[in-house]
Amino acid sequence: MAIVLTLTVLVLALICFIGEWLPVDITAITITVVLMLLGLVTPDEGISGFSNSATITVMAMFILSEGIGRTGVIQIVRDLLMQWGGNKPSQQIFVMGGIVGPITAFINNTAVVAVFLPIVEDWCKKQNISVSKLLIPLSYSTVLGGMITLIGTSTNIVASGMSKKLGYGEFGLFQFTPVGLITFAVGLIYLAIVAPRLLPDRKPSSSDLVSQDYRLNDYVSEVVIKPRSSLVGQTLRSTEIQRKFDLDVLELIRNDSHFPQPIADKVLAAGDILLVRGSRADLLKIRDERGIDILPDMQFGPKALGEAELSSEEEGVAEVLILSNSNLIGSSLKDLRFRQRYNATVLAIRRGEELLRERMGKIPLRFGDLLLVQGPKQSFLGLQTTSDLLVMEQQDIETLRRDKAAIALAIIVGVVVIAAFDWVPILVTSLAGVILMIITGCLKPGEIYGAVRWDIIFLLAGLFPLGTAMEKSGANEWLASNLVAIGGHFSGYWVLVFFYLATSLLTELLSNNAAVILMIPVAIEVAKTLDLNPFAFMFAVTFAASNSYLTPIGYQTNTMVYGPGGYKFLDFTRVGAPLNLLLLVITPLLIVWLYGLQPIQ
Domain limits of the chain? Predict the structure, then answer.
């Protein structure tokens, strides 16, 4: 009965994860509550995920990566990219991957992508090439590089924690580095040779074409206030036209003088020209109700919205990415009072292939959303300093603590060296590194909370009890025995291939961390039943869980480049499917060659 209940919870959990009716972290916590209510785990076992060494280590690594980002260590290598990148796509991808891959072996890859996104965009503008040629290779290179060491990705740390929990001890820092280095090299060569031929030339390389990319010609207009208009003598605030209609006033033009935001309290006069963002339907309603004329051709704003880009010496337009740990996720622009908070107006939202321009104030924001914002250029400096948003242009050096870069780098090196020699567990060294980051001023105390991906922490804490229930109830043994009955006559290599493929597909449906937690116990049971090396199976599951290239939602860095690259969903599949297939064949072979299939005595 316990097996039936546990597997029922597992199936329901998979359905909830795939359906995405709730955020994945809330779903995971709900699963834990259900397991406790059914008596499949005790209350202490239900909350054990919060104290698991893997959970705490992942949290510490997020903070250490933030310390590296805040001090500008990664920016130091951007000159190498500019110097050696060349002007051929294959060379550009090879150089870029060769730089970011080794970095992500020691630093969280989402942090690396966040830093390199604006760098690569700026590089593409200078080279006059489309960013869609380079951003998928950027994401895939960081994923490949994350498999070089234990701390390259949270998935590796979780797999190490599962190994310890199941009695096989934690992985060493460089335990699977030989496989990681070879797969990284193979993947990078594939990306350099094949990706340029498969990737589209879709996203304009020049910022001067951003309005064309967002199709603002149909959505930004100039209107003139007629002498008998009901708006004359009133302020924008008192007229409430921005609240009653889906409309944003970007600028007021009076006698050739331009008045940018904030203009809510400026008294309007006859002949004033307003530069507005809004649909034609809403403008026609305002024309009939309030007495305005819609100018057919823009005379005072940017010519054809192509050259000046709603910009002047004071005003500017920028693309802003919603980051994975953003506090804005789930809230609408209206709820956030975005214009008042950041002194900038959202003109459009790009969500993957979808372009949202109507009723934006009511749309809940998601991770990976790309906002086109317009406002004073000084406001963009404030946007650069928040951990909620990433301005898609190179970060102002003044906002980084460059004088602390050497200290932050020394702390990371110390954490790695001490863990590599196994003098102190990685949990202890990473927490010590966090304390040193704060003491030395690389991070401010308040910044550590914004650095942590709390959704991942709660996801891990919620899923570890499910693994415990699978083990206690005997569900793992039941699944393993049935798998052995079906495929026990195959060679060890093909069993490894099966687990690699199953884990890879599960990652696309759930998440890499969830796939590791669910698959490693079953893989170990199968290895024990077949008298094969359990480490070989754990490594196969770990590599498969992270090497996710089929969709833009299978891995966080893929989601981050989805909007900025102007990609379509199948662009990832077109490039990623052959890479997945290549690694499906190569990785199990490397594991068999380097670690063997016979159990270690």
Answer: 2-204+411-595, 209-305, 315-397
Whether the domain at 209-305 and the domain at 315-397 fall into the same CATH topology: yes
- Is pLDDT of 405 > 50? yes
Nearest to 154 by CA among 533, 444, 473, 426: 426
Q: Do 324 and 384 contact (CB within 8 A), yes or no? A: no
What is residue 403's three-state secondary structure? Answer: helix
**pLDDT (tens digit per residue) in 272-304:** 777 777 766 677 777 776 677 666 554 444 444
Inter-residue contact 321 to 370 (CB < 8 Å): yes
For residue 512, pLDDT over 90 is answered with no
DSSP notation for 66-83: HHHHHTTTGGGGHHHHHH
Q: How far apart are CA 353 and CA 346, in angstroms?
A: 18
> What pLDDT score does 307 carry?
39
C-alpha to C-alpha distance for 7 and 466, rounded to whole angstroms: 10
Pairwise pLDDT comparison (541 vs 28), residue with the higher score: 541
Q: How many Cβ atoms sit within 10 Å of the Cβ of residue 353?
A: 14
**pLDDT tens-digit series, residues 44-103:** 888 888 888 888 888 888 888 888 878 877 766 766 776 776 778 888 899 889 988 898
Sign of CA dihedral 364, 367, 373, 376: positive
* DSSP one-letter string for 142-195: HHHHTTSSGGGSHHHHHHHHHHHHTTS-PPPTTTTHHHHHHHHHHHHHHHHHHH
Both tokens assigned to 197: 């031929």
Asked: is 209-305 a CATH 3.30.70.1450 domain? The reply is yes
CB within 8 Å of 551: residues ≥ 6 apart:
508, 558, 569, 572, 573, 576
Q: How many CB atoms lie within 10 A of CB 8?
A: 12
- With beta carbons less than 8 A apart as the criterion, state whether 563 and 350 touch: yes
SS (H, E, C) 342-362: HCCEEEEEEECCEEECCCHHH
Q: What whole-number distance in Å separates Cα of residue 513 and Cα of residue 507?
A: 8
* Element spanning 274, H or E: strand 273-278
Could you check whether the bond before residue 262 is cis, i.e. omega within 30 degrees of 0?
A: yes
In the block, tokens 């009939």 appear at: 288
Q: What is the pLDDT of residue 185?
A: 95
Tokens representing 550 are: 């089929």
SS3 574: helix
Q: Which residues neighbour 171 within 8 Å (Cβ) at sequence distance 6 or greater?
A: 150, 156, 159, 160, 163
**Where would I find the H helices in 176-267?**
177-198, 210-213, 236-239, 241-244
104 alpha-carbon distance from chain centroid: 14
> Is the Cβ–Cβ distance between 140 and 549 less than 8 Å?
yes
- At 304 the pLDDT is 40
CATH code: domain 315-397 is 3.30.70.1450
* d(C-alpha 115, C-alpha 370), whole Å: 16
* Rounded-to-integer distance, Cα 319 and Cα 131, Å: 14
* Percent of the chain topping pLDDT 90: 13
Burial class (CB in 10 A: 0-12, 13-18, 19+), 218: exposed
